[in-house]
Amino acid sequence: MSDKPRLWGWTLIFTTSATLVCCAIPIALVAMGMGATVAAMVSTAPWLITLSLYKGWMFGLSGALIATAAWAIYRPGRVCPADPELAAACESAYKWNKRFILASAVMWCAGFFAAYGLVYLA
Prior knowledge:
Order of helices and strands: HHHHH
Helix content: over 70%
Oligomer: single chain
Shape: elongated
Number of domains: 1
Structural class: mainly alpha
Strand content: under 5%
Number of strands: 0
Largest sheet: none
Radius of gyration: 18 Å
C-alpha cells in the first residue's frame, strides 16, 4: 500500500524536474550571461531542444499531475486503516507525500517563473 504513494511522489519529482531541466535552467543561465554553458548542455543532450519546444505542454502536464496528487492527498474523508501497522505506514506515506508535493510545487513555480516570468523582467 505504501508503494503507490511513493510512485506518485517520484512521478511528481520527475515531471517537475523535467520542466526545470528543459526550460528554467537554460533560461536562467542565459539571463546570467552563461550562454556557452547552455550551448554545451544542448550539444551534450540534444533532446533538451525537443522538450523546450513543448514547454507549454510540459508545464501543463506537470501542473495537472501536481494538482491531481494534491487533491488525492488533501481530499476530505482521507482515512488510514485501523490496523496499527498499516496505520503507521499510512501516516508515514502521508507525511512523505506532503513533502513531495510541496517540493514539486516549489520546483514547478520556480520553473514557471524562470520560463515565463523572467522574459518580462529582462
